[in-house]
């Protein structure tokens, strides 16, 4: 074992010694040398396993947790850029599980959910859940969705979190545990260190096995243009993270996203299933919706998202106020018919992007 790993074990032992609580059984096998250093030995490693064809043939197939993405006791990472509605997606997954309904058309293991929230105030989280349920036409889940609000709470490491969960949660109590977001568990770890991220992910891999659950974590992509990266390399920091989880579900901008449609390409790198075919989804506040009529075409490297007609109207109104001048500018600048640019104008009005000053003049809203 590395010194860093031993130090993390020492942290757990010191925590329980300080609080007077009993060390969880799952950590007792790590041992201690009796002087507080906690020099551990892995005394309960599994026996060697001998392959036999007849035995393998009779083994039951592992249960699927999320169709085509992860199996029972797997780890799934939902990764996306800043403000790409990752939390809304994770919450919709949680709601789908507790209500026993598909998530974006995919069967999902139904059952109770524990949502570990590091970023939102409790009231804000509850309001988000309520809005999603109301938008989906769902009634109260009757205490099947539990949240653990850790915003502002210092959790030094994932090992500490797992130790605390072992105290609070019984095996099989929750069908899904969701950690949002992952970076709040880094503590003193360096996200670019392969060794430290390997230790972090090993702890997270252990969580679904110890607690007989399925684990979802959210993570953000690195800064800059990541449109040309492979899905498995989208998690920020060391590439160890993406290779440790069982599946990575990536949220990236769709080529046709616009001010009217918040479109995304959902792609996945999966370990246990056949190749995941990318899908198109739209975030229509407050929920995600599957767009089966659109090909999943994400923005290419260096490409800007598609500018809609309503956005062109905004540009025109910044320079012209009279309706006739706005329409004329749009038609000449974009070589479009009067009918087309008037449709753009109507879209901008419906979206509350522009406001009428009088019977002939317009201005930008909130200006």
Short description:
With 367 residues, the chain is an alpha/beta fold.
How does this structure look, described?
The protein has 3 domains: 3-58, no CATH class; 64-290, 3-Layer(aba) Sandwich (Rossmann fold), CATH 3.40.50; 309-364. Helix content is 34%, strand content 17%. Residues 32-43 have low confidence and may be disordered. A hairpin with a 5-residue loop joins strand 12 (354-356) and strand 13 (362-364). The protein has helices at 3-19, 25-28, 53-58, 86-99, 122-135, 158-168, 194-210, 240-244, 309-319, 323-334, 338-350; strands at residues 64-66, 70-71, 75-80, 113-117, 145-149, 176-180, 214-220, 247-253, 263-270, 279-284, 287-290, 354-356, 362-364. The strands form 3 sheets. It has a 9-stranded mixed sheet with strand order 5-4-6-7-3-8-9-10-11, sandwiched between helices. It is α/β, with parallel strands linked by helices. It has 11 helices and 13 strands. The radius of gyration is 25 Å and the shape is elongated.
